[in-house]
Amino acid sequence: MKKTSSGADKQATCVEKEESCEHAVEHGESLEAVQSSGRQAGSALPGSQCPPQLRLTDGPLGASPAVMETMGADALPLTVNSSEKRDVVCIFGTGDFGKSLGFKMLQCGYAVVFGSRNPQVSSLLPRGAEVLSYSEGASKSDIIILAVHREHYNCLAELADHLNGKILVDVSNNRKINQYPESNAEYLAQLVPGAHVVKAFNTISAWALQSGTLDASRQVFVCGDESKAKQRVMDIARTLGLTPLDQGSLVAAKEIENYPLKLFPMWRLPFYMASVLCVFFFVYCAIREVIYPYVNGKTDTTFRLAVSIPNRVFPVTALTLLALVYLPGVLAAILQLYRGTKYRRFPNWLDHWMLCRKQLGLVALGFAFLHAVYTLVIPIRYYVRWRLRNATITQALANKDSPFSTSAAWLSDSYLALGILGFFLFLLLGITSLPSVSNMVNWREFRFVQSKLGYLTLVLCTAHTLVYGGKRFLSPGILRWSLPSAYILALIIPCTVLVMKFILILPCIDKTLTHIRQGWERNSQPSKSALNGKPDI
Ligand SMILES: NC(=O)C1=CN([C@@H]2O[C@H](COP(=O)(O)OP(=O)(O)OC[C@H]3O[C@@H](n4cnc5c(N)ncnc54)[C@H](OP(=O)(O)O)[C@@H]3O)[C@@H](O)[C@H]2O)C=CC1
Ligand SMILES: [Cu+2]
To answer: Which long-range CB contacts under 8 A does 373-380 form with residues at least 24 apart?
Structure first.
């Protein structure tokens, strides 16, 4: 989310955020959907990738004596047509990032001029690039990419005259989060006030640019105060086959600089929730299925710790996590109904929870997958084969046969069918949330899959667990030390979510909620806090 400084801006951001949340809540899907529509808008245009491979034999600026060695045979620059006039881009700094970016730009048809402290000794630069001093390089282009560390920006103050009116692209990163009071881009803007500073490319690694493995990091977050300058940088990013995302004014640079330093920010909460659930259910099942039999009958059932108990913990965790994907949407809807307006911020914890729903869903899918694998090995387990054999022998010795029970067959088959269908839809949800797939579907399709199919998955998986309980469900015999089976606990959150959702879609409640989401407010007086831009919570 864009960082803004003024109160009015803050309000705009707040409303914008709630708009997104509102959509998300309305349809119960992940906010990723909201982001995905932005992604689509900013995604690389078809055909904006590097042009067909035609070798450049000579730089557009003429082969200067400073043209350096090649970066290897496969690193030869490729371009459209050497006779075509190409944009000239200047890169300051001939380090790892400068070289890799220059190489990629040459490949994509740009003319590249490097600015270096020592143009004569810079080596291993891509063929076709010219190397000049900083001031000479700056005079060749009106767009200059600074592939230099922030610590060395002070030398740019001397070049201020050469940089006036130019677009300066800051690509720098820091070693620590919030290392300096102001962002590197803002610091640069202070050093060279006459230039238009744009922050971009800091989330792309030099290695990815050079090796072409850009799958993981195609997104380029761009921010700057001058919109034309920003547009030009975004055009360059598109031409390089990247996906530029406009993050607003230069104030956003601080957040953009922190991105590469954050380790899985959106995955932390899902992993934390999953770990807590796993540990809790593992200990719970161990008490019921290992410690209880030992205390009561001195039976050693520790072997259950390897397969039986994990195969209880995984499905129970998967189902609880899946319900936790849909719980914040329901809570947000209730909050909006209670407040009678959508123009108030959700509490931070709810906001954060909403934002990591996609990750929560994917972690849940991982556990569901483990449950499927563990279930497949059940027939080859020694314990299971031993029990089957024993039951058969006992029956044979007693000369008895067990009558076929249609209801038991129905229960077992419905349990399996619900599980298989639930898992299939779960997989479908996971696949459609991948950026490569979500970029291919439109906003309506994405919403349909993540919301309608999502709830259907939750219904099927909850039903799968209910049928598993079957007739034993409420029999007191399944209590051990008054503890019910883990699957009964696992049903609490999913059933609560489904009941709440069911109430929310009742016509009378749904109508009010839809009104609120369309901007209607119960108290017609505008909220004071909404006017001065302060969050309510
Ligand atoms: N490496 C990466 O994967 C990424 C790097 N970045 C950012 O790109 C910038 C450059 O990184 P990288 O190329 O890895 O760094 P390097 O250390 O490899 O290169 C930095 C370059 O800065 C120039 N420079 C200018 N003034 C000085 C000085 N006083 N002392 C030393 N060097 C100076 C040098 O070029 P010359 O000798 O030609 O003047 C040097 O080669 C950094 O801000 C970094 O945060 C961003 C994303 C990824
Ligand atoms: Cu199951």
So the answer is: 374/307, 374/310, 374/311, 374/314, 375/311, 375/419, 377/307, 378/307, 378/311
* 317 alpha carbon, closest ligand: 2
ipTM of the complex as predicted: 0.96
Closest ligand to C-alpha of residue 416 is 2
Q: Is the CB of 258 under 6 A from ligand 1?
A: no
d(CA 186, CA 192): 10
Residue 215 has pLDDT above 80, yes or no: no
pLDDT, one tens digit per residue, over 408-434 is 888 889 989 999 999 999 999 888 888
Q: How far apart are CA 102 and CA 113, in angstroms?
A: 8
> Is 341 near ligand 1, meaning CB less than 6 Å away?
no
- Which of 30, 29, 35 shows the shortest CA–CA distance to 16? 35
User: What pLDDT digit, counting tens, does each position of 340-350 carry?
Assistant: 888 888 888 89
Nearest to 233 by CA among 225, 222, 243, 241: 222
Q: Identify the CA nearest to 56 among candidates 110, 122, 94, 123.
A: 110
Band (471; pLDDT cuts 50, 70, 90): low
